[in-house]
Amino acid sequence: MSTTSLIDRECVRRLLDSRHPDATLVFIRGGCEVLPADEVDDAHKGLVIASRDDVMAQIPGGTPTDEVLDALAHRLDNIVRDLGA
Description:
Layout: H1 9-17, E1 23-28, E2 31-36, E3 48-51, H2 52-56, H3 66-82
Antiparallel strand pairs: 1-2, 1-3
Helix pairs in contact: 1-3
């Protein structure tokens, strides 16, 4: 049985490409949103998946390939599921 991903490559790409230096990936209303950290209100703090710095630390140098983005998306998808999404 296949499960639909809640976080995909494009979510990760939007996080990495965000113009905000403190970009944060948040799971809101069934989808991923990229917000500056200071815009994550108290109601959504528990839904923060990762910061761009967290994700960048998992990329082995250079520009991430689609395969690397897919692997990161899979890890982040597991985090979202652990949050109860």
